Amino acid sequence: QLQLVESGGGSVQPGGSLRLSCTASGLSLNYYAIGWFRQAPGKVREGVSCTSSSGDSTNYVDSVKGRFTISRDNAKNTVHLQMNNLKPEDTAVYYCAAVADYSDSRYRCSGNEMDYWGKGTLVTVSS
After folding, report:
1. Whose C-alpha in 6, 45, 77, 85 is 20 to 30 A from the C-alpha of 27?
2. Is the distance from CB of 82 to CB of 67 less than 8 angstroms?
3. What is the 3-state secondary structure (H, E, C) of the chain?
């Protein structure tokens, strides 16, 4: 079983930055694509970013392109989401999730297809 734990959330002013981490245990992340998702109060869950198992391929939702960067360190079993120039509309609980990606070809993560989920970390962007 793969366990995922998110960290790095918090409160920040608009224009600020946060770095989220998703740390795995139980299994190696080497063969898993990792997605970051978020859910704001009263809204449906949204896919934010996804990285293939090697990290060579990534994908972002349009609203975060140019501001967020996903990266992974498989040796440390960790995936990061660097979030810059944060906006109030980025306020949400952020979740990381994993899905098997043995062919290193999965870089679009669908919430319905993910095998493992963390419990989330809250990001609040407010002045």
Report:
1. 45
2. no
3. CCEEEEECCEEECCCCCEEEEEEEECCCHHHEEEEEEEECCCCCCEEEEEECCCCCCEEECHHHCCCEEEEEEHHHCEEEEEECCCCHHHCEEEEEEEEECCCCCCCCCCHHHCCEECCCEEEEECC
Site of tokens 């999965």: 106
